[in-house]
Each structure stands twice: as C-alpha cells, then as structure tokens.
Recover the amino acids of this structure.
C-alpha cells in the first residue's frame, strides 16, 4: 500500500513539473528601475544566433509589445527604446521570445511613476514635460475612498470547485458532529 | 506484536467497527493516544469552543495566506497590480482572497467573544494568569496582523494605513523606528510590512498559541467539574464546528468578496480604516493622532491588569463590583467607538 502511495505521489509530482522553456539567454538592462516616459536600454547575450526575437514587457495585468530585434552571429543585440506611452508604474519583466514561441531570456524591470510636475519643472530642460505626460493638463489621479470596479469573472470550473470544497467541508463537519453526538448518547 | 485493543474513548467498551489499517498505523505511529487525556465535559459546549474556533480561523488564514503570497508582489509599484492579478487572473484567487478576509473578520470577532466569556467566568485567576496574558498578547498580535494586511493592498485605504503607521511610529520614538521609511533605504516600508505580515508576526502568533495551548493542556480549563471526557472527543466536535464555520466562510466569500480601492495616493486622507480599527479611528477623531497610541494602550492595558485586579482572597471570594462595572464600560466604549467611527464623517488626522 505504501508503495502504491509513493508511486502515485511520484506520478503526480511528475505531472505537476512545468516544462521549462529554453531560457539560456541573458538580457542586461541599463537600469532595473525606470521612471515612466524614460528610455529602456538593454543588451542581449547568449541568445540564438542570427535570429529575430520578439520583445515584450509583461506586467501583472498587461503585456506590451516592444517590437522585434535581430541578434548577430554572436547571439547578442543592443536596443534603446522608449517605454510604451500607455504603460503604468509597476513591476514588469522584459521577455525575449524566439520565433518558435519559446522564451529565451528575461529581466526584471521596475517602472516608477514619473517625477512630480514641480520637480520636473525644476530640472533643466524638463519644463513643460509634466503637462504633456498628464493627459493634456489634467491634474492627475485624485485620491478617492471609492472601491474599484474590478471585472472578476468566475468560470464554471471555479464554481464547481468552490461548491465542492464548501460541500465537502459541510458534509465532513456535519459527519463529525453526528459522530460526536452518537458517542455522547452511548455515554449517557 | 498483537494489535492494541480498540475501544470507544467515551465508553471504554470495544468500538463497534474495527479501525482501518491506515487509522491503526496513524494512531500507533503518531502517538494519538496522548490526545486521549480527560477534560471536563463542559468544554464541549459551544461557548467554551470559541478559542478553538478562533484557532480554526487562524488555520484558514495561514493556508489562504500561503496561497495569496505566491502571487503577491510587495514592491510599492507592483503591490496593487498584483492584488488585481490575484482577483482577476489567478484561478479561485478572488475566492481565496475573500476567504482570507472573512477568516480575519471571524477571528477578530471570535477572539473578542472568547475574551468576554473567559472574563465572565473569571478564568484568568490563579494559576491561569499567564494563559490570560498570552491570550491578550495574541489579540494584540492579531490586530497587528490585520493592520499590516490592510496596508498590503496598497490602495487608498492601505496607503493611508501606512501613513498612520509611520505617524504612530514617530510618536513612540526609537521603538517605532522599524515602521518608518527612514529605517533603511535598502527596502521599502511596504516590503518590510509584508515581511512582518508573513514571517515575524505569524511566528509570534504561533509561539503564543503554543504557549496558550500548553498552559491549557497542563493547567486545564476553569470548569469546576471532574475531567471525564477524552480530549479526542472534544477535538472531533470542535473540528466539526470548525468545518461548518469554514463552509459558512466559503459561502460568504463567494457572495460577498472584499473589493479594493484605487491605487493609493500618498499625502491624502479620504478613507476610513478596516472596521476592527474604527474604535481607534473614533478616538483619533476626538483627541488627534495621539489617540492611535493611547486607545490601544488603554484597552490592552486594562486587559493586562485584569488578573491583578481580581486575585482570589479565599475560595468563596466574589469579584469586586467596580471591576465588573469597569469592564462593562470598557466593552461599551469599545463597541460604541466602532459604531461611532462607522457613522462619523471622514476626518483627517495626520495633520492634527
């Protein structure tokens, strides 16, 4: 019996092991933290040679295309590109994807909010930039106590899983209490 | 080795059905017999199980917390997005988060009911003072966990909670230094609050739970009757109630999941805190920011000195009436301040 249990556990562990992509390449970012509107500079190494790679900026909620890049015969590339205009501050991953869809390299990137308008205006050559980045003179987001309207969709499978877990807990709880009551009546 | 005789723990008669080999193996190898010590029958009444039900809520919080932490990003720029990710992209993520929220709510309610019931029964008296104090510290730790949990959402309410933590930390000087952004430049305050929420505070909590359980095991509960019922029977009944409660939480979580505010903007004060903190908020409305230090000191200070104020002089000594009156006043002020905080208009405290 113990052997069967171990075998089953081994099989399940094998099934649960993710198939790793051929991620041997390296992306080196000039800076791991960038302010909104800044330029993203990077260098790729140890990548497939003479290949065209697709670059993506992946966040928790959105993915942005950064275009394509071609590697040289040494498997390297260099790139400087502005951050997409609609990207928000947050934690992201820059990902290089091979033509076959495999992820070949990635690097973490933190995008911070743009400097405050006053601070930017005070910086040489930056006067007026803040107005341009805040949606045509809008004062920017305002604090609010309101809750966000988050579009949460629950799939049928999730409904089934939730019902099953609740039902199991209910049945097990009721069963244990019934068992306890039987023991008490035996006692009296 | 002949198999051990399997008997009903209640009747000491042979059980009607023999145990499964797996059950027998578990009983034998995990020293399950050690749990068959006798306790007072009254422990199987629901009011006596409030502590155990609080513990079941803690188990739910730990399990759901581990799941949520796989997807949570404690960086100031990524936290809010990662909560949205949990709500919208992780399978069952919104439900797991809702169970975490409702379990926290259950725990904060049941621990108060447990405290009130223990106070009513004078179970804090010698030799159980340390059991009571461990319980009071547990309650304080739960508050700290609820507070840090609120901050982790990084929405407007969470951002304001962090601002309050910083202001409160500055009020208490060196003791509050770890809660200020100036403590270190190497890690943002949100990341450190996250670390407290998932490591330091749970370790403190589990240590206190361990102490609380140890003392209950060896000092017993304040029951005043013979110990005749095996603990395993109590455990079965408690687990039954806990599972029923958890299924109720599952239903609540499915139909009333907690929302999230918009990403927090620092320097603003437009929200009210999570309801268990409204009593502090209400005091802040009256006396300003210092209320966030004074109010918890008064409540936890009172709870702490209770065993010292009611020491048994002799076997038949009664509790001083003034202590009962004081406890009723503290309870009414606590509940009243929560209601007042909920109904009062939103106020700014950080500039007060």
């Amino acid at each position: 019996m113990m052997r069967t249990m171990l075998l089953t556990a081994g099989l399940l562990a094998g099934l649960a092991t993710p198939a790793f992509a051929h991620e041997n390449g390296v992306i080196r970012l000039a800076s791991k933290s960038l302010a909104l509107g800044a330029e993203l500079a990077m260098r790729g190494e140890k990548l497939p040679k003479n290949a065209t790679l697709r670059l993506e900026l992946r966040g928790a909620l959105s993915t942005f295309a950064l275009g394509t890049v071609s590697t040289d015969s040494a498997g390297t590339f260099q790139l400087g590109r502005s951050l997409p205009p609609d990207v928000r501050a947050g934690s992201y991953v820059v990902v290089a994807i091979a033509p076959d869809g495999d992820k070949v390299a990635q690097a973490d990137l933190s995008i911070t909010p743009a400097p405050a308008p006053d601070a930017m205006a005070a910086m040489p050559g930056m006067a007026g930039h803040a107005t341009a980045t805040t949606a045509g003179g809008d004062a920017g987001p305002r604090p609010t106590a309101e809750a966000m309207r988050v579009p949460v969709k629950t799939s049928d499978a999730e409904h089934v899983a939730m019902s099953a877990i609740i039902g199991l807990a209910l049945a097990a709880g009721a069963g244990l209490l019934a068992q306890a009551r039987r023991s008490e009546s035996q006692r009296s | 080795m002949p198999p051990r005789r399997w008997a009903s723990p209640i009747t000491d008669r042979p059980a009607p059905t023999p145990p499964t080999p797996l059950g027998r193996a578990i009983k034998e190898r995990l020293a399950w017999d050690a749990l068959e010590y006798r306790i007072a029958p009254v422990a199987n009444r629901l009011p006596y199980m409030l502590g155990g039900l609080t513990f079941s809520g803690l188990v739910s919080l730990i399990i759901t917390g581990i799941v949520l932490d796989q997807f949570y990003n404690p960086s100031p720029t990524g936290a809010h997005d990662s909560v949205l990710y949990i709500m919208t992209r992780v399978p069952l993520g919104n439900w797991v988060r809702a169970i975490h929220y409702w379990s926290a709510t259950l725990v904060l309610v049941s621990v108060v009911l447990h405290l009130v019931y223990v106070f009513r029964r004078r179970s804090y008296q010698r030799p159980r003072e340390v059991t009571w104090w461990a319980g009071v510290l547990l309650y304080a730790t739960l508050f700290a966990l609820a507070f840090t949990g609120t901050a982790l959402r990084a929405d407007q309410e969470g951002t304001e909670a962090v601002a309050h933590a910083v202001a409160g930390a500055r009020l208490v000087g060196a003791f509050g230094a770890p809660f200020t952004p100036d403590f270190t430049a190497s890690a943002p305050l949100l990341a450190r609050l996250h670390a407290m929420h998932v490591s330091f505070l749970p370790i403190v909590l589990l240590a206190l739970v361990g102490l609380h359980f140890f003392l209950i095991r060896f000092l017993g509960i304040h029951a005043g009757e013979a110990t005749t019922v095996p603990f395993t029977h109590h455990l079965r009944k408690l687990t039954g109630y806990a599972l029923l409660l958890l299924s109720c939480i599952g239903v609540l979580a499915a139909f009333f999941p907690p929302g999230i505010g918009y990403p927090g903007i620092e320097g603003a004060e437009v929200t009210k805190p999570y309801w268990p903190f409204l009593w502090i908020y209400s005091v802040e409305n009256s006396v300003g920011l210092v209320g966030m230090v004074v109010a918890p000191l008064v409540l936890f200070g009172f709870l702490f000195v209770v065993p010292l104020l009611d020491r048994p002089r002799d076997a038949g000594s009664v509790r001083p009436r003034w202590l009962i009156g004081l406890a009723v006043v503290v309870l009414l002020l606590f509940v009243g301040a929560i209601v007042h905080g909920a109904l009062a208009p939103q106020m700014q405290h950080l500039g007060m």
